[in-house]
């Protein structure tokens, strides 16, 4: 399986960064191939605009969705968008790793959704949810929170986590026709001790490996099929 890790945290020593590195190493050791899209590390621009396109269909009046459709049809997305779209297309499993901020994704992740998952490329009229473009792809959220598990509960101050994650689970991953996986969440990650941090890393690693499944035994199959 080819896995794309889309990771977003401004601090290289964060739990998100550690989980990304741990997952990448474990996936490769298990025989999978991995790409990492480090949004902060690569300086991804989250702000949508005319700069998203090498040319425009309607120079007089800018309409973003129209321009996305035109760029998809003509291959005229800006280089950073084209790069991320190619990464996305190559992936069998896409894992987004980020902290929950203000009950939602960090702005840089929202910008990735806005700019990369473009009209024409990621969805179109009649190509959403069960009829979406990507039914063979899996999508997994690996998240950290500042609040405890109790706060993200029915009686907690933030409400159940399913409600918090609905805009991404339902309106991004499932919207694209992908197979939405049960998220992994490291609760109160900034305030746990080292032992709990290590347990979280191990649990996150195991969750990603479980979703990826066993790597195909390509090499051994090729060896069996070759003349002796």
Automatic annotation (TrEMBL):
Keywords: Oxidoreductase. Coiled coil: none annotated. It comes from the Bacteria. GO terms for cellular component: cytosol. Transmembrane segments: none annotated. Signal peptide: none annotated. Pfam families: Flavodoxin_2 (PF02525). One of its GO terms (molecular function) is NAD(P)H dehydrogenase (quinone) activity. Residues 1-201 form the Flavodoxin-like fold domain. InterPro entries: Flavodoxin_fold (IPR003680), Flavoprotein-like_sf (IPR029039), NAD(P)H_dehydrogenase_qn (IPR051545). Belongs to the NAD(P)H dehydrogenase (quinone) family. This is Flavodoxin-like fold domain-containing protein. It comes from Rhodoplanes elegans.
